[in-house]
Amino acid sequence: GNSVTQMEGPVTLSEEAFLTINCTYTATGYPSLFWYVQYPGEGLQLLLKATKADDKGSNKGFEATYRKETTSFHLEKGSVQVSDSAVYFCALSPLGSQGNLIFGKGTKLSVKP
Amino acid sequence: DADVTQTPRNRITKTGKRIMLECSQTKGHDRMYWYRQDPGLGLRLIYYSFDVKDINKGEISDGYSVSRQAQAKFSLSLESAIPNQTALYFCATPLRGHQPQHFGDGTRLSIL
Lengths: 113, 112
Known about the structure:
The complex is a heterodimer of chains A (about 110) and B (about 110). Chain A has about 110 residues and is mainly beta. Chain A has strands at about 5, 10-15, 20, 25, 30-40, 45-50, 55-60, 60-65, 75, 85-95, 100-105, 105-110. In chain A, a hairpin with a 2-residue loop joins strand 7 and strand 8 (about 60-65). The interface between A and B is medium-sized, with 20 and 26 residues.
């Protein structure tokens, strides 16, 4: 079946550190891949997405590349800020699912000044 | 105005009570979704609707029912609440295309 596995948190970094949150998936065909971010007390916001192999999604300094060969979509940011503290969710939309999403369990990031 | 509005934002109730969570959207989307979020489990799909006459079960529909009263409104009901339904509930609609990219702020539900 379809599933998403992302690294467990919490992840604690100092400001300006490099961030990587690993995400791997299991799916048939070519799903669409997403990263969502949830700030404290808020709903989820789409951070970035990629719809085909080798696509790179980017937004707000975050990047993720759709790697079909390793079934991965790791989230990276070169220099994190305190305001990036949030929970990050990797998700996929299976081919032919008509838009339904399957989420990973989330990774909580805390950035210290 | 928020595109997706959920009410109430917080609710505490007792086991066995009937509860309705409401969701409304202002963008005229056909598709609407209800998710449940539990700590350490991510979000799981409860029900989704592709239009007023098209309602579909998601991964965890047992114990829940929904009503699509109009294109703009999609309500989630717990007919007889139980403590393990304590969770954060989100409604979502597509930002564009078919992807549920736009979430409401959530309803925090506690069942004692």
